[in-house]
Amino acid sequence: MPCYFVNCLTKLLLNECKNCSADHRADNLLDTDSDGKILVSIRNWDTEKDGLPDYSNVEKFMRFLDKYVKHNINGDMLKKWKGQNRNKTLIHKLKPGDLAYVTLVYEAKLGVWAEGMLGLGADERTAKPKYHKKGRVLRFSDAWDDAGREYFRTLVKEYTRLWRDVDFMNELVGHWREYESKHHKRSYKRKRTSSDDDLVEKEVSEEDVLMDDEPDDYALLELPARPPPTVHEEV
């Protein structure tokens, strides 16, 4: 496995743990359903039935993209892409596979993190990561079980459907610009003043590619290997 990929996975996992702790202290954790799934309302959004989302509908989703999903992309690569695409947003860069993988990791680790945030000692912890094979697994090897692989494919389908909904994505990009102006004021101001293209809000169209071509056979998608274990987690 390339070193940069291992480093990205390590950064992703550590960042999720850190942000989960911060969100817990701020009472800002993502809502979960009875099965422990996050962002269900967004993943099931239907513009024909639900209409276009307003800012409040997608604010937590955008924070999830900002604080969690973007760390699934190599930082140097993301920085270079931003420099070459100053009139575009993070939404244009993220792919359904990025969202699917980070959603899977977040849900799989949430129980473990919750016990850590409660300050439980190692001998008091009972939660185990979801969708992981039982028993000892070699470091950096693939520990996802069959249920995790199938769920990953389901998540890719759900996010692909959203990313192909041009009306939804137009609205999301508009809301993202507002989110960025509120939470990343310095970078937003710098971007707005450094590119003439930014003087006009550019809508997302079918020509403005938001995702790579996805295979029709989702069974061909490979789930990335398990990130390195966190502290107090068995391997």
Secondary structure blueprint with pairings:
Elements lengths: L2 H23 L14 H4 L3 H4 L4 H13 L7 H10 L5 H4 L2 H22 L28 H18 L2 H18 L1 H10 L41
Descriptive account of the structure:
The N terminus and C terminus are likely disordered. It is globular and about 50 Å long. The relative contact order is 0.16. It is built from 10 helices and no strands. The protein starts with a helix and ends in a 41-residue tail after the last helix. The chain has one domain. With 235 residues, it is mostly helical.
Keywords:
mainly alpha, disordered C terminus, 235 residues, disordered N terminus
Task: Give helix % range.
Answer: 40-55%
The fraction of residues assigned to DSSP E strands is: under 5%
Low-confidence stretches: 1-10, 193-221, 226-235
Number of domains: 1
Radius of gyration: 18 Å
Helix-strand pattern: HHHHHHHHHH
Count, helices = 10
- Total strand segments: 0
Biggest sheet layout = none
Short synopsis of the structure:
The protein is mainly alpha-helical and 235 residues long. The chain is built from ten helices and no strands.
